[in-house]
């Protein structure tokens, strides 16, 4: 049997390390493309300022990238170290995209990032540009494959349970990689990375403008970043909506929790703008409702409805009762794989197998499960509503705020007045944490919303964890927190230091003399180098 | 042999290729980290050594990440059981390993001598410890690991952390660290000149000399150890779980494959010849040849391990009949087939562009250029 404390500690450790890793990944995803865009302008126009821009942001990118790589290493192994039953249960499906990520994406990104840093003197400008694009392609491909893997946890398609090997097995590779959840989430997440990079570049550029330093670099960088930002933020919001639409069908419990929907309501459903949900009493306090909006948001119609927690718990209880014979037949099959009676019983009930596992937490021999135990397991099938409700709202609010910020920034930069809007520039600096928070909130919505499952409807979280002792888990959690805290302190210190130091354009205080940046001179410098 | 059994064998071979790729490519960078403080006496010398592998360590490290991913995809039960069983040592490996990317990237970002000295120690730890753990883990496979399964195939590890650090495992760990230090020395010889190259040559000679002795001692040790024999199982290429077999232990059984197929003796021979060859090539100032001979040594050593254990991948000492073999721990036929397809397309592609990257950055590292280049490590 699993010790639930160990399961909870394993969850805490996974969440902590994943959220930490996800502080660095979005910036990497976006910065690689912004660097490619900046360098493209350099190669096309030949203006040396764009090489300085590329190299300066490239330096900041690398400080961030190192921690993305480091924390990614531990993630690759954490399924095995801490989620061993999960790993053997779905490894046949889940492992493949992870391995392909390494083969197709990490090699590309990591091999060429070396050339991107060290190759300035050895490669022709066009070659170096190609290398930068390959880094961007590599980092974004890795996001694709990790989200294909994640989509299987959210909406397990293309696989079946094989009672002979006691695990899930792949039966349709195309269904796995073209899962609608995977596609929507890949675009949503990678573009969220572009937004992150755009805000970062805009915020740092705004800081230089406030200090009247590196004005040429800052204004050009700012203009590129807000353009990039307007398009990306619009994309994130659109895809977020699509993801909600897909998710409503695949994971009704996540949607109900996100919206604080305890009771099923008739169409058109109102939207809870604000509420303080109580899991215990299954109700919201202090609700502020907007009529019609929920139906429009999640069903894109005025007549659509979605089930609330009341209906979903009932459905879960029915499926748990259906899952009990599935689990008990599986135990018989484990003793004798050729038992025809057990096989027959399994085939009849296998669609509810995961729900049978849900009650196994309370009754190890599921056939003895009482009504109370089944009711308790059914209650478990609803994720924590308050966390979901507020994470979702924080994410959306920040997203809309960033859109407004970018639109305003675009207007100012096109009018060429941004350098005089000091309040706006100060605000831009304070916006830097916003996309990071939004990304973290998005992760919480996606992963806490999936609870109590690691693989939705198939494998409960409580069964997935490794059977470690509490002592081991405390040890590893403390170790991770210690190492990661040291890392982030150093990272922030170096990042702030590099920003304060600024680019080596010999122009810390005044504007660049454009005459020095003419094309032939820059080509000559390159040739000499 | 039917298709599924063939795929299982192919993936067993690919697992070997992967471990060799990891040992050679990651091992040499780890080696450079481990010997950095010895071969570089001044800050500039250390920077030269770091910049020899600077453009490539990140790409090389993907062999390690791919190692995790590919074992997950092809042998999920091994991934699940081994990494959770070896929990504390895995953490030791991961925590020291993740200092490396940060160390490379951050070390030369500050001029302070104390800062750089601290990172040099960090790079030593992150180069030395993971290679010892890597070898020690392999050493434990020969002695069996204390784990068993319940009917749902949930695995339970019943040993202690300290039991993993037994004498034979330490021997294997030191062997692996010596080989990687030697490879690190050979690599720096190829990319640097002067005193650093000279000291690196000394490291390479010492590393290979020790490795030869340790590999020989390890061989005799294994010959007298209790090996595992698969007496009864559902068959190769048959879908199965580890709950359906009978396994016994017998003295000297790890050599039975070698006795049955004499050609396999070529593998340990390649191990010794590679080490000797690399030793002599390093002595006679031929670093490129020494590097390739070192790679042959790794192929020999890992090949020897794989063939001795075959068909076992993770033997259980507490319940030998639940030992994991390539027949009961692999993925389904469809997954193995898809993964093979991806491997056949992407591995040649990776080898091609990695070679190009090495070609672009070929030649010796110039200390003057590093001193003036803000992008250098």
**What would you call the structural class of chain B?**
mainly alpha
The number of distinct β-strands of chain A equals 6
According to DSSP, the number of beta strands of chain B is 6
Q: Counting H and I runs of at least 4 residues, what is the number of helices of chain B?
A: 14
What do these coordinates show?
The complex is a heterodimer of chains A (529) and B (377). Chain A is mainly α. Chain A has helices spanning 4-45, 48-82, 84-118, 125-154, 173-177, 180-211, 215-250, 252-259, 293-299, 309-335, 340-349, 353-360, 371-380, 385-414, 422-430, 433-448, 461-464, 470-501, 519-528; strands spanning 159-162, 167-170, 271-278, 283-290, 453-455, 459-460. In chain A, helix 1 (4-45) crosses helix 16 (433-448), helix 4 (125-154) crosses helix 6 (180-211) and helix 8 (252-259) packs across helix 14. Chain A is globular. Chain B has helices at residues 3-39, 43-53, 57-74, 76-85, 87-97, 99-106, 113-143, 167-191, 195-223, 256-260, 266-283, 287-309, 333-360, 367-372; strands at residues 147-149, 155-157, 226-232, 246-251, 312-314, 324-325. A two-stranded antiparallel sheet of chain B has the order 1-2. In chain B, strands 3-4 form a two-stranded antiparallel sheet. In chain B, strands 5-6 form a two-stranded antiparallel ribbon. In chain B, helix 1 (3-39) packs antiparallel against helix 2. The mean pLDDT of chain B is 92. Chains A and B meet through helix 2, helix 3, strand 2, helix 10 and helix 18 of A and helix 3, helix 4, helix 5, helix 6 and strand 2 of B.
